[in-house]
Amino acid sequence: MFADDASDGLVVRVGDPGAQAVHLLFFEPTRPYREEPTLDFIVRARGRWVSIETSVRTWDGDGFDSFLSSLAEDFRGWEGARTWHSLEYDLTLSAEHRSGGHVHLTWGIHDRPPAEEWHFETTTVHAAGEDMQHLATEIHALLTSEIE
User: Fold this and answer.
1) Rounded distance, CA 23 to CA 16, Å?
2) Which residues have a Cβ under 8 Å from the Cβ of 95 and sit 6 or more positions away?
3) CA 42 from centre of chain
């Protein structure tokens, strides 16, 4: 779901913003180097007991939106976990299709290299198919809306 509570630009919210749940916000896509396809964005995890954020470095998005879209296309399911990571592993994602037609996404947010002193993980649950495609579309819109 698109939201507007983290910045003036486009924000993608993943997960339930309820009092007990942890949700993620993705926002502020930027291109730090004009001559390279480096694309950074912010990811923030918020919940009753947590509030962390880090900058995620990608090489032109690292196929983040394509990965999510491929999960939507395989709405009937798959065996095992499918994984994705950003260029510097500051954001990782593991997807498992479970019974009942739901996809469990385990998001890993990591301290930036070289410190790598902390790691946070949370899982969000999404209906396979259309729900996953909406998420892929929103992430694609975020990654293609970068601010100079």
Assistant:
1) 6
2) 71, 81, 82, 83, 84, 103, 104, 105, 106
3) 10
Of 60, 116, 119, residue with least CA distance to 92: 119
Q: What is the dihedral of CA 63, 69, 74, 79, to 10 degrees?
A: 40
The span from the CA of 145 to the CA of 148, in Å, is: 10
- Taking the CB of residue 4, how many other CB atoms lie within 10 A of it? 11
What tokens were used for 17? 């913003």
- Could you list the pLDDT tens digit for every one of the 148 residues in the chain? 444 455 568 999 999 776 668 999 999 999 999 889 999 999 999 998 899 999 999 999 999 999 999 999 999 999 999 999 999 999 999 999 998 999 999 999 998 777 778 999 999 999 999 999 999 999 999 999 966 5
Radius of gyration of the chain (CA): 15
